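Consider what follows.

. . .
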Amino acid sequence: MVSAGLLKVIALSSLAAYSAFGRSVPKSRRDSAPSGFTLTGTASSDTPLTLKIALTQSNPSGLEEALYDVSTPSSANYGQHLSKDEAASYLAPTSETSSAVNAWLQQNGLNATAMNPAGDWIRVQTTVGQANELFGASYSVYVHESTGKQVLRTLEYSIPEEIKSHVTVVHPTVMFPKYSILSPVFSAQTQKRGLPRADASCSTVTPACLQGLYGIPTTAATESSNTLGVTGYGNDWANQDDLESFLSQYRTDISASTTYSLETLDGGSDPQSSSDAGVEADLDIEYTVGIATGVPVTFISVGESNNDGDLDGFLDTINYLLDQDSPPQVITTSYGDWEPDIDEAMADNLCNAYAQLGARGVSIMFASGDGGVSGVQDRDCTTFVPEFPSGCPYITSVGGTTGTNPETAVSFSGGGFSNYWATPSYQANAVSGYLDYLGSTYSGLYNASGRGFPDVATQAQDFEIVTGGAAEPVSGTSCASPTFASIISLLNDELIAAGKSPLGFLNPWLYSTAASALTDITSGDNPGCNTDGFSATTGWDPVTGLGTPVFSKLKTAAGL
């Protein structure tokens, strides 16, 4: 962690230098609360308020350079991942930033606590009244109509001019939570049914189907240090009895008692009654334990005790992982959000945090979303809606396919181009080729200079799971992300067994050495926003990315 000296102890000379702060300048505002929230009144001034403040990061471009250096196969430093402290040093605030912000806080009787190793996020305990004075804010109480949850938010806030360049985000302020759990599973049958047989023919998707389709080995991994993390949000919990039933039916070659470990933050938990079983969590756990044979799987259950929404959960999760000395080598997340609903400074900060973890040798995968070009879930739109964090260039976005011989893009596969991040160098040629194919089609509906996603794809429709004691089929790119993550975990097991580094940040490898190890998907599209969406075609496309995995070829591409 960052030393307490930088965060809490300010020399008298520094205090004197910042003893008087001048006028404040506007930082952010919105005209009204988003749809679904109702104003109930002004918040009481003595209401406790925890603020999370993002300090200006010292060298994010240096982190990007270091990330690419250890993640690009042609680099002499490929696989030489950074240590926890080395990665954090790129985002640690300068001493000037730390001194300025802490002097201002101490002048107002406040102290800060670091939230991560870099210290670029700090936590401050205050009250509504003091926050209103400090930030020129007007915190009010809003009720989320569909859930009844109350939140404190202001529609605008300001920053003292002397520290404006040192602070990028104050939260919570103008960003409202979604409380939608981001609809991680696209569709699920409401009627439970008996367990169907294990199906290698892929009329429905089971572990046997995926093993046959992608050549995934069934032999057990051997390296206990190689782990796979599955994140869970919104009180969606994995169930051990459901996993046992699933393995008994679909992985009869391994012990049905094979299970997962649990880590919790923000008051997360994993209750085991049948009524508590969550469809998303059961899906993610069953298809990681059930495919990544022998790889230790950890379910990371994120509660809501220290946050009030899904984005807060993302922030707390990445800070939790960054603080670990040995985080899982692979992380899969089946949740996401609409990019335009995330403050750009907050999105950029989170994206840099993913880069920090990637530079340490962690492969981070997110489902690409289930609304086609309309965003995470289908909604009314006049322009295409990118997904967050799939638009972040430092994660691997996983889209969806359906069918076999050949596979085609599944219609809901999220894909498109970010409005926040430019096309990264590793995919410049691939994206350029697709734009040439697209021509003037959809001109003005998307950002042709943006980072394209997804990067890869796997099956995403009609996955058989067991939840609440019965079977049901589910679909969504939330099926695809744990599938691809399991494949990467098995590759990492063999790499570690051979004395090599895990794959880490995947994209520079995927778009170069490993591109030929993926099956190109050339048919299907992802309609939305009253259009047919993008079309899958030869080469990379914003529906299925570079294509679907072939394990034996990926193994060769990994140098095994």
User: Anything to note?
Assistant: Confidence is low (pLDDT under 50) at residues 1-20, 189-193. The chain is about 25% helix and 20% strand. The first helix runs from residue 4 to 7.
